[in-house]
Amino acid sequence: MMAAGYGEMLRTRHAARLLAGTLVGRLPSATAALAIVLFARAEGGSYALAGALSAVYGVGNAIGQPLLGRAVDLFGQPRVMLPSAVLSALGMVLFCLVGLEPLPLAYAAMAVAGFFTPPLEGGLRALWPDVLKREDRIHAAYALDAVAQEVMYAVGPLAVTLIVAAWSEAAALLVINAIGVLGALAVVTSPPSRKWRSAPREAHWLGALRSRGLLVLLGAFFFVGSALGSISVASVAYADEHGGGMVSSYLLSALGVGALIGGVVYGGRQWAGEPERRLRLLVAGLAVCYLPLLLVPGVVAMTVLAGVAGVFLAPSLACAFVVVDRHAPRGTVTEAFSWLVTAFGVGASIGIAVVGPAVEYGGSDAGFAVAVGGGAVALLVLLAAQRSFGPPVAVAEAGALPENDRIGAVEPGFSAGHQA
Length: 420
What we know:
Blueprint: H1 2-11, H2 15-25, H3 27-42, H4 47-75, H5 77-98, H6 103-115, H7 120-132, H8 135-166, H9 169-188, H10 191-195, H11 212-241, H12 247-267, H13 275-290, H14 299-310, H15 313-327, H16 333-384
């Protein structure tokens, strides 16, 4: 039954192409941190310099995603996504050409590559309701999207290491980014992408951020991201305390497998009730499943606990995608999804920054405590802001349904208006 549901969704015209194209197009951002560090080290740079270059890319990405998402809502997907994919790839080409000298140019190349990373995630989620039509298929697509992210983040770094082994670090950067452009091209040349138009939007400089419900969601997933980022560092510290080697890979792989299982099960059935309430329950499950990590038992038991910790991650993301679509103001759906990507990514970066000193002074126990704290705060944000995060009220004008109404209702107070 579960496989049949996913199969029906993927057999829908254009669905498989859009999902595959988006995943391939996102490979550069999924592998950037590793590829940049490997290239910088190969050029003779220190780990500190390599980390700084990677951080510039990450900051550029965090700034660019919502801004490019807003541009997509205003001008359509092909006019924004393909040029930005090309510019991002050219930034990486420049980085490969100049190396680390002159250093300001290398930093500029990283800023360009990060800022112009196309908002393919938000774009795909904006397309799903028009492509799939039915609510059950859309929810399955969101779940499969979250699961596919786990696969991509597992396969991407492996692809980088294989290209480095076969050719060089520079070749890895160039090949991955060329593949990314091809993925973006596959998406924007598809009929759904070319035909898609955002609903008319009211002029407001805050754009999607004027939705209180969306702000609550972004706050919660900032802390979910911080928890996930801290687990990656705490896993390395745990490995150092338990013989090193591949131990950290075991933990992170188990976390990914848990997320895969949870996402597939969640997307394989229909769920009754409001997604806002369901999201609170899923994030509560996420926070509770982080708690056993504080036990830090032996490697085998810890690997099992890491798998359990990942079970609610993909379902929480999939449900969050539905909630974003319900709360995004009219004409801002791509921007709203892009803000979720940014909040999650910035949270992960902050989590990594915070967990470093914690591990330094308290070992892996303290590192996993940061992750537990992140999960708990995410849940508290959702619980403390229940009034703002309740289900949106359906307000649809005859003949001018907001795009949010494709799968649910729309945030109150956002009626049709002129373009921002």
